[in-house]
Design goal:
By secondary structure, this protein is mainly α. It contains five helices and no strands. The chain has a single domain, classed as 23S rRNA-intervening sequence (de novo design (two linked rop proteins), Up-down Bundle), CATH 1.20.1440.
Length: 117
């Protein structure tokens, strides 16, 4: 892992941020009651991923501290897979592609946690 100067350089941050934007737009099309229930939960979990990466990178005093925030981001990524699958199964317009992208992001976060020094 080469030296990086900002969390913006981390692919997991960039992907997480872009996916959060997609989820925000996606949930705007949910039925009225779900915009404020399931939609809100999806938006919070989606934003949690890049936010944890940024916060952890900014506060890192040790590798262990940054990894703690990366594990939080991984948990939110897993939560997104569950919430998106639930949304799709409820008949809301959720593509399998975005679910796959969160699955891939989770794997990338896991690898980053394992390899960060």
């Amino acid at each position: 892992m080469g030296k990086i100067s900002s969390y913006h350089e981390l692919e997991v941050y960039r992907v997480g941020y872009e996916l959060a934007l997609q989820v925000h737009k996606l949930t705007q099309n949910f039925p009225g009651e779900e915009k404020y229930e399931l939609g809100s939960q999806l938006r919070r979990a989606a934003v949690s991923i890049p936010a944890n990466i940024a916060e952890g990178y900014g506060r890192k005093k040790s590798s262990a501290e940054f990894k703690h925030f990366l594990r939080n981001a991984l948990g939110s990524s897993n939560e997104m897979c569950v919430l998106l699958n639930l949304s799709a199964d409820l008949g809301y317009d959720v593509s399998r592609e975005i679910i796959e992208q969160y699955d891939i992001l989770g794997k990338q976060l896991y690898r980053l946690i394992e390899n960060w020094k």
